[in-house]
């Protein structure tokens, strides 16, 4: 897929949850070929060189007809803070679309689920809209969304997505909205109550959550497709800084390194060697709420 560098016009910026902002960018050339799961590299510095490096962000929504895409981001450091301060009408240098996209379900798959933790909801929303359209084509198709955050004020409103027939449920670490516990607890609860085990799971979130979701999926023989993060300097395969350990294609016990920016960010969870990740992801705690 061709990648493009474009000066994107910032049309709208809005705070949507604690430390979380949504921006709308007009960039018709990038939008034209963007697919859910892919990402852009954004040059944040408006003057000078701080921060020096571009920052990666997933496509949160893609509006091809209008030449617009949206980014949903959490403020975690200087780059994202500066981005949150950008004014409507300003321009940003953006390169994209980069990386691979989420595959749509295969012909035999009818029940699918999205699992999102924290800002991992960002790429899942565009995918959720596409899956809602996919589910409408056949009565037997169902889409679940399991969305967890630390507390209710960190959950991003899902707007129209919830009215598209997706069965959404929520968890928070402190029980302030939805179930008290993790996304994995939520998935267990849903399978228990509905009796429906997804045939494919899409996930994005913090590494520990992704590792726990992958372990859950492997145990239940559910195919899991994960969008993984890694610290990126170039985003285009030039710096070799985003490597993660994955199974060798000819010998699954041997590790090789995959570049998240080129071979990902979307991976089949069985290809990732979770135990070789640095730092090693730990299983999230099970929460006990009063
Ligand atoms: C493919 C991809 C897609 C992404 N999509 C989104 C998105 O849609 N929304 C969003 O909010 N964020 C997303 N991120 C993460 C985002 O790029 C980082 O949060 C951002 O670069 C931080 O920049 P900063 O200058 O604010 O923080 P920095 O000052 O660079 O770092 C602040 C802290 O965040 C940590 N950090 C920085 N980058 C990452 C990272 N990639 N993963 C984990 N920890 C990191 C640093 O180690 C440090 O502790 C994505 C990352 C990747 C690789
Ligand atoms: S970020 Fe430079 S090679 Fe992936």
TrEMBL record:
Signal peptide: none annotated. GO terms for molecular function: 2 iron, 2 sulfur cluster binding; flavin adenine dinucleotide binding; metal ion binding; oxidoreductase activity. GO terms for biological process: pyrimidine nucleotide biosynthetic process. Its cofactor is [2Fe-2S] cluster; FAD. Binds 1 [2Fe-2S] cluster per subunit. Keywords: 2Fe-2S, Electron transport, FAD, Flavoprotein, Iron, Iron-sulfur, Metal-binding, Transport. [2Fe-2S] cluster binds at residues 234, 239, 242, 261. It comes from the Bacteria. Belongs to the PyrK family. This is Dihydroorotate dehydrogenase electron transfer subunit. It comes from Desulfacinum infernum DSM 9756. The lineage of its organism: Bacteria, Pseudomonadati, Thermodesulfobacteriota, Syntrophobacteria, Syntrophobacterales.
């Amino acid at each position: 897929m061709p990648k493009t560098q474009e000066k994107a016009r910032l049309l709208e910026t809005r705070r949507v949850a604690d430390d979380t902002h949504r921006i709308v960018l007009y960039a018709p050339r990038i939008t034209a070929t963007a697919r859910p799961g892919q990402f852009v590299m954004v040059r944040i510095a408006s003057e000078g060189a701080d921060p020096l490096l571009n920052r990666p962000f997933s496509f949160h929504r893609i509006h091809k007809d209008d030449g617009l895409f949206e980014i949903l981001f959490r403020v975690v450091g200087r780059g994202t803070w500066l981005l949150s301060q950008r004014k409507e009408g300003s321009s940003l240098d953006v390169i994209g679309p980069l990386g691979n996209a989420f595959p749509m379900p295969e012909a035999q798959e009818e029940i699918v689920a999205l699992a999102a933790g924290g800002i991992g909801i960002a790429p899942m929303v565009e995918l959720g809209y596409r899956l809602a359209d996919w589910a409408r084509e056949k009565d037997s198709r169902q889409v679940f969304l399991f969305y967890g955050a630390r507390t209710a004020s960190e959950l991003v409103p899902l707007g129209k997505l919830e009215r598209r027939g997706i069965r959404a449920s929520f968890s928070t670490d402190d029980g302030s909205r939805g179930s008290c516990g993790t996304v994995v607890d939520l998935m267990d609860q849903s399978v228990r109550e509905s009796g429906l085990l997804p045939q494919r799971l899409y996930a994005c979130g913090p590494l520990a959550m992704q590792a726990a979701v992958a372990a859950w999926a492997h145990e239940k023989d559910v195919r899991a497709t994960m969008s993984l993060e890694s610290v990126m300097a170039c985003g285009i395969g030039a710096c070799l800084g985003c490597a993660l350990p994955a199974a060798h294609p000819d010998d699954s016990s041997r590790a090789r390194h995959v570049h998240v920016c080129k071979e990902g960010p979307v991976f089949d969870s069985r290809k990732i060697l979770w135990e070789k990740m640095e730092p090693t992801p730990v299983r999230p705690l099970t929460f006990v709420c009063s």
